[in-house]
Amino acid sequence: MPLVFVEKVKGALRLSALDRRAQALGLAPGLTLADARARIPGIHALEMDRAADARFLARLSDRCERYTPLVALDPPDGLILDITGCAHLFGGEARLRDDLLDRLGRGGIAARAGIAGTPEAARGLARFGAAAVLVPGREAGAVASLPVAALGIDAETTLVLRRAGLKTIGDLAGVPRAALAARFGADLVARLARIRGEADSRISPRRPPPDLVAERNFAEPISQIEDVLGVLDGLAGQLAPLLEKRGEGGRRFEVIFFRGDGKVTRLELQTARPLRAPETLMRLFNERLEAAAEPLDPGDGFDLIRLAVLASEPFIAAQADLERGVREEEEVAALIDRLGARLGAAAVQCFVPVDTHIPERASREVAAAAFSGNGGTWPRPCPEAAPPRPIHLFDPPQAIEALAEVPDGPPLKFRWRRMLHEVARAEGPERIAPEWWHRNDDGALRDYYRIEDAAGRRFWVFREGLYGEAAPPPRWFLHGVFA
């Protein structure tokens, strides 16, 4: 039976996509399902799933990254590849296009492809014209016969242009640009210039391009894990001198495995310090592969493996033998890398200081591998003095019942977790005001005290608010316990 996909548009079910058999019977997108069944009673209708289409298009874009890292989505059913500087690796633009269409065809995907000097011209040729390979500079003649819908404009503007007798790109090109801009806006004029090759444009790739790339193609796919690791080691060796020449080291690496059946597997690695030594990188990737939730499945084999440096930083060589501190930092960074490779970069956290005087906001957690070390410095405590604040704070502070001298005396006794504590010593207050320059900070004034009870236990408590006739009575809280 003819197959159609439908979705609700303004309360009515309309055709949104059709197979070739339905198109041959005269059905078209936009027709209501009732009219379509009146014409062809035997059609089979399914609900359109735009989200599934988007996911499928994203998977196709991953497959196309074997040809270029610059792949942009052209929803709902198109991709745009910037193959500048890549075509010679496949024997020319025509062979690249043929290889791409052949791979998609083997996966059961019918596709059309056009190559031109601008993304708009290539898109128009693939969607509305003869899929061809154009020499840059010949776009104007090749797109002249295309319908104005090839500009990618909305349906209402397309209808207005057709009613005015401007049905093709060539018709539109004969109209003075000033008149077009006055009637339809500058965007239409810009689209016309780009599709005719008169103005250049760039695509917005789905993934940011990497800093460095090393890859290897195979005439016969490889499937043994030992061979895969050997190839990966060789690619790491290719990247090391390139990073050394630039005086940099990689902070984020990604290895991409392209299977012969089109499946793409990605493994990303994030390090706590810039790396470029192949042996260190391979050790981390081995741990990453061993700890992966799903083992690497080569299937019928990988025919392309790519190792990319997604982010790099200046590499500073240190003499670890002269400074013990440098060696300790390297050992800590190596530990973070190993843990991140096994548990995931987000699972290994560290605290970084925040420039604020509010205690609970004085630090925040970040991924240890992503921390570059320039987030500020911690205050250095005096070794001879008691610590001013506990290391661990209660979140949120725990309410207590306190008896204190008015107006700003320390608590004489307080009850916490049903236990009464008699205060033997107290120090304070340390007044901390809210950050008035933040509009969303509606906290109250706090007076903090370091206190010690009769049993020698030490606490950090604060009074929120002040005593006054018009103000509500202040509340007491326990914010932390000293070790």
Helix and strand arrangement:
Elements: E1 3-9, E2 12-18, H1 20-24, H2 33-39, E3 44-47, H3 50-64, E4 71-74, E5 78-81, H4 93-106, H5 119-128, H6 139-142, H7 155-163, H8 169-173, H9 177-184, H10 186-195, E6 212-222, H11 225-246, E7 248-259, E8 264-275, H12 278-290, E9 302-314, H13 324-343, E10 349-353, E11 363-367, E12 393-404, E13 411-416, E14 419-432, E15 446-453, E16 458-464, E17 475-481
Parallel strand pairs: 1-3
Antiparallel strand pairs: 1-2, 4-5, 6-9, 7-8, 7-9, 10-11, 12-13, 12-17, 13-14, 14-15, 15-16, 16-17
Descriptive account of the structure:
α12 (278-290) packs parallel to α13. This protein has four domains: 3-48, MutS, DNA mismatch repair protein, domain I, CATH 3.40.1170; 67-195, no CATH class; 212-341, DNA polymerase, Y-family, little finger domain (Dna Ligase, domain 1); 393-481, no CATH class. The radius of gyration is 33 Å and the shape is extended. With 483 residues, it is α+β, with helices and mostly antiparallel strands. 29% of the residues lie in helices and 29% in strands. β12 (393-404) and β13 form a beta hairpin. The chain has a six-stranded antiparallel β-barrel with strand order 12-13-14-15-16-17. A four-stranded antiparallel β-sheet has the order 6-9-7-8, sandwiched between helices.
